[in-house]
C-alpha cells in the first residue's frame, strides 16, 4: 500500500465517523425539538385561543402559543398565569399544567399559558449538559416534557447583537437577553420573535382586561431573588399579604420583594407600567440551575439533590437552604400552586366585585403527598376536544 | 427570516466550506480529526438542526 492510499483510507474513515456523529447528533436534536406534550383540558376550560389572535405578527410562528381560558358561571375578575417564560424552570410549566388540566372556576376568569416562549422550550442551554427531556411519573405511565432553555432557540432568532438595547427604555442589557422573554416586555410589534411574543402577551393582557398576572419561575440557590414573590408597586399589598398568609398556613416560607424600577424588560416591571394589570413573579428553588452543582441530569432536575450545594450551604454561600432531602419537583410545584391560590383568595376578599374563585387545584401539602403526576391526566383516555398539544 | 439571518447562514456555509477544503488538503491526521470535529456544529446549524 502506498502512502497516498493509506492517507486516502484514513481520510475516508475520519469523514465517515464525522458523518455518523453529525447524523446521530442531528437526529437527537431534531427529536428533542419536536417532542409533543399533551394537555388534557379541564372541564373548566371554555375557550382555547392562541397568542396570534391577540397580535397577528406572531401568527403561525413557533411562539403562536396556546391560551386556555377558564371561566366561571358568575362574572368576576381575570387572572393570567404564565408558565414557560423560562422553560428550563420546569416547576413553572408544571404548576401551570395542573391549572389547565384540573382547575374549575366558580367565579371570574383564569387564562393559562403553558409555553409562553415555546421556542425556548425546544433547545437546552449551550454547554449546560442538560437532558433534552424529563418524565413525570403518573399512574398511567408517565408524561414526557421538553427540558427547554432560558432563551429562545437560536434556530428561531439569530444572530444576537453585541449589546441588547431594550425597547422602549433604551437600557443596555446582556446580548443574549434579546432572546429572553423576561427581558423583552412590554415587547415591540416590529421587533425580534421574542420581542413580538412579549408584545402579544401585553396585547392579550390589555384586550382581556386582565387584573392580575402571575409569572411562574425557578431560581438557583446562589441567586438572592429566590423563594419569593416579586411585586410591582401596584401589587405590594397583595404580595405582602400572600407572603404572610402562606408562611402562616401553607407549611412553607415565601418572601416578598419589590420590582426594581431601574431594571427593565421584566414582566413584574413592564406589565405593571404598561397595562392596568398587577404583575407578580414567583420564584421557587431549582438546584439544577446552580453553577456549583455536580452531575447534571434528570435525577437532579426532579429530585433536586446535590452534595456540592449541600456543602455550599454549610459554608453559608447560598440564599436558600438545602440538605440531603434536596428540593424535589413536588415541593417546587406545590409552592407555586398554593401561592397562586392564596393570591386569588386574598384578591377575592379585597375585590368581591372582581372575584376569582378557583377550585380543583391541589395545595402544597397535596402535591407533596400525591406527586405532580397525580394531577396529569391520561391523553389516551381524553376526548378529542379535550386534548391539546404544546 | 431576516436578511441578517440569511447572511449568517451564508457565512456558516462559507466557513464550513473552508474547513472541509482544509480537511481535503491536510496531510496530518491530527488536523484532519480537528477539522471533522469543528465542522459538525456548522453543518448542524446550516441544516437547522441545532
What key attributes describe this structure?
heterodimer, A: 390 residues, nine-stranded mixed sheet, two-stranded antiparallel sheet, B: 82% helix, elongated
What is the fold's blueprint, element by element?
The complex is a heterodimer of chains A (390) and B (50).
Chain A: H1 3-33, E1 38-40, E2 45-50, E3 66-71, E4 74-82, H2 90-102, E5 104-113, E6 133-138, E7 141-146, E8 164-165, E9 172-173, H3 193-207, E10 212-219, E11 228-231, H4 236-249, E12 255-258, H5 267-274, E13 278-285, H6 298-303, H7 307-314, H8 329-350, E14 357-359, H9 364-370, E15 387-389
Parallel strand pairs in A: 4-5, 4-10, 10-13, 11-12
Antiparallel strand pairs in A: 1-15, 2-3, 3-5, 5-14, 6-7, 8-9, 11-13
Helix pairs in contact in A: 2-8, 4-8, 8-9
Chain B: H1 3-25, H2 29-46
Helix pairs in contact in B: 1-2
What would you call the quaternary organization?
heterodimer
How many strands in all of chain A? 15
Determine the CATH topology of chain A.
Answer: Aminopeptidase
Number of domains of chain A: 1
Strand content of chain A: 15-25%
Structural class of chain A: alpha/beta
Task: Look at the structure and give the CATH class of chain A.
Answer: Alpha Beta
Along the chain, the helix and strand elements of chain A come as HEEEEHEEEEEHEEHEHEHHHEHE
CATH architecture of chain A: 3-Layer(aba) Sandwich
How many domains would you count in the coordinates of chain B?
Answer: 1
Number of helices of chain A: 9
Give the termini distance of chain A in whole angstroms: 58 Å
Q: Can you give the helix content of chain A as a percent range?
A: 25-40%
The most extensive interface, with participating residues per chain, is:
A-B, 17 and 19 residues
Q: Name the shape of chain A in a single word.
A: globular
Radius of gyration of chain A: 22 Å
Q: What letter string, H or E per element, gives the SSE order of chain B?
A: HH
